[in-house]
Amino acid sequence: MLRHIRESGPKSRARIAADTGLNKATVSSLVAELVERGLLREGSADSSRALGRPGQLVELDGSGVCGVGAEINVDYLAVTALDLSGEPVLERRVPVDVAHLDPGATLDRLTELIREAIAAVDARNGQLAGVTLAVPGLVQDEGTLSLAPNLGWGPVAVADEMRARLDDPAYPLLIDNEANLAALAAYSELRQDGPVQDLVLLTGAVGVGGGMVSNGHLLRGGRGYSGEVGHMPVAPPGRTCGCGRTGCWETVVGLSALLHQATDVDDPVRDPSLDVEQRLAGITQRAEAGDARTLAALGDVGAWLGIGGAILVNILNPDVLVLGGYFAALGPWLKEPLEIAIRDRVIAPDGGGCRVVRSELGFAAAVRGGAQIALDQVFVDPTVIGRADQGVAQ
Amino acid sequence: MLRHIRESGPKSRARIAADTGLNKATVSSLVAELVERGLLREGSADSSRALGRPGQLVELDGSGVCGVGAEINVDYLAVTALDLSGEPVLERRVPVDVAHLDPGATLDRLTELIREAIAAVDARNGQLAGVTLAVPGLVQDEGTLSLAPNLGWGPVAVADEMRARLDDPAYPLLIDNEANLAALAAYSELRQDGPVQDLVLLTGAVGVGGGMVSNGHLLRGGRGYSGEVGHMPVAPPGRTCGCGRTGCWETVVGLSALLHQATDVDDPVRDPSLDVEQRLAGITQRAEAGDARTLAALGDVGAWLGIGGAILVNILNPDVLVLGGYFAALGPWLKEPLEIAIRDRVIAPDGGGCRVVRSELGFAAAVRGGAQIALDQVFVDPTVIGRADQGVAQ
């Protein structure tokens, strides 16, 4: 019933009964239950009824229920809290040189950020649906980060570690790959503008991941290790990848590859204590000013982006290839070579109809996707949210 | 009900009623209907009942209902008829140099083969569930072969052309990409040995296609153009691909690439008037005899197979990578370099658990998959099969 209202908007109780096949007494009782839990509220009078007593519309009450998404990446930690209608309650990203911090200290910092987000939810008397943690690596058995090449971490039982730090919370705490979560966020984002069933999202950071949605479903692969596009062996042996190999795609398209080519070692743009968007603004300024070294580096990265992009489009034939992270920020210089490669190198006519789109979410995609997944659980099982008199479910 | 018996074996009417929630009178009436259509038959007495009158088991009657799969490939045409239990009624493959024949003449030859298969079904008083045609190229709107680089064909309205040649048949006539159909056949094949949800099948022929099953479903992409792995730009510019580009994967792993390196122009192994398996037997003999040129060519192809294979496994994380077509036939020399590449080049631990398997179906995979799809329709809607007194549904 909750999903029905989410998808098709405010409705009278009589209309809900007719649409769902439930009887009116059941609908009234369910509505009362969901209003108590802060998921529905009474809306305006039903003006669609020409005859009889006007019914009251019932609508989604998003404000009281929030999901939290948090992210560990190579050079930042981030958190966001979204309410049920998708409005941000809090968004924070802090530059952290995670590669030079041990896992325990990193998870401590992340815990502080998550507590900040939960405090923001509490401050509006909201209820917490759950927390999802995005990590830049392989997630095993829904809880262990088994490999994160660019963090230099071995296996870390992230779910257990975080549960301990958050005092064994009652709300669901999920761990997922950041590209998967970013792809889900991009999927929601794009569907607001029209039908999309198949997409590939590229997370442009120090590492490069791929999140793939096919026919509306996330592709996870046999063991959940799909989308490791950054390690496709397509580049010439040259710089060593975070995974220890050479020839990986991310050695030529990752953020480090760009910075390596475009800047000197002591360039402030490389400083991991500065926020990544601020650093990218520095690159943008130079590119706009026509700086030859910057433009050459962007040209090279764009060409390599085209090679890997054409591979992905030949294999998956997505409706949309979404540029995330730094690819989105520097899209004005990277999108065109990618579009040319798709037109030229993809066998399907017109590149199989694939559009290249810059995500509006930038580096916030993964945390948004994480918060959305936490909220999705409310629609699957509204009882995860307690009644108003029971306080916040923590 | 039919699907239930297919999946869980012979059952009494009482058991079917209990399992499906239908009442016994309905089950008896449906069973009678399906027996009349030759889809079910009375089996042995139900020995599982300790008490009361023993019920008669009802089982799948495969013999009377057949599906036909046909295939156009670069150097052969093929057809197969399977009965409902998956047993072959007829299998034929004829060497045809399709690239040097025009589409009309090719479809004429194929029509003869399909008529032969239908005659074999008729000869056993069977009923035809449908015909599926596998093509080595991009299929648009479920009926037009929009591009088949290695045939040198432009767009051909294959479905319309074949319907006209087969006198506008009443049975369903479907067109699909050969790699998709081969992947479905491999999926059925592998599931007999254990659970498999995600696989990638490589069709090794002059062209190289990929059929992908994810979480039990065929991945088709936004416009149905997925799996064009042969045109991934991973090879150095060298031989020109059938698509007119250079650098495509199939220029280094396709059958022509192997023959080009391993044989002289006038070598009978290159003769398209000989059956492809006979030609491959020639290669096998030389490899087994330790012929240096043959082994060097197989080594090169194997190494390149590993590059593209590692890309596919990094992206899709399949449970199984299935070698089809000539890759299966020459598997003893190609499988090992592929396994090494997956172990070494795939980021997930143990290559994400991906096994490399040679398909037992060889070049028959696509026609098998085609026949299976035709038969699948019977389980979706048994009324596509006429009653015995109405004769064959043509």
Give the number of DSSP strands of chain A: 15
Strand order of the largest sheet of chain A: 6-5-4-7-10
Coarse morphology of chain A:
globular
Structural class of chain A: alpha/beta
CATH homologous superfamily designation of the largest domain in chain A: ATPase, nucleotide binding domain
- What integer value in Å does the Rg of chain A equal? 23 Å
Largest sheet of chain A: 5 strands, mixed
Measured as a percent range, the helix fraction of chain A is 25-40%
Oligomer: homodimer
Q: What is the CATH architecture annotation of the largest domain in chain A?
A: 2-Layer Sandwich
Show unreliable segments of chain A. none
InterPro entries (chains A, B): ATPase_NBD (IPR043129), ROK (IPR000600), Tscrpt_reg_IclR_N (IPR005471), WH-like_DNA-bd_sf (IPR036388), WH_DNA-bd_sf (IPR036390)
Family (chains A, B): Belongs to the ROK (NagC/XylR) family.
Domain HTH iclR-type (chains A, B): 2-42
Organism (chains A, B): Kribbella sandramycini
In short:
The structure is a homodimer. Chain A has about 400 residues and is of the alpha/beta class.
Describe the protein's architecture and organization.
The structure is a homodimer of 394-residue chains. Chain A has 394 residues and is of the alpha/beta class. Chain A has three domains: 59 residues, Arc Repressor Mutant, subunit A (Orthogonal Bundle); 141 residues, ATPase, nucleotide binding domain (Nucleotidyltransferase, domain 5); 167 residues, ATPase, nucleotide binding domain (Nucleotidyltransferase, domain 5, 2-Layer Sandwich). The first copy, chain A, is built from 13 helices and 15 strands. Chain A has a five-stranded mixed β-sheet. A five-stranded mixed β-sheet of chain A has the order 13-12-11-14-15, sandwiched between helices. In chain A, strands 1-3-2 form a three-stranded antiparallel β-sheet. In chain A, helix 4 packs across helix 5. Chain A is globular. The two termini of chain A are 25 Å apart. The model of chain A has no long low-confidence stretch (mean pLDDT 91). Chains A, B: InterPro entries: ATPase_NBD, ROK, Tscrpt_reg_IclR_N, WH-like_DNA-bd_sf, WH_DNA-bd_sf. Chains A, B: One of its GO terms (molecular function) is DNA binding. Chains A, B: This is ROK family transcriptional regulator. Chains A, B: One of its GO terms (biological process) is regulation of DNA-templated transcription.
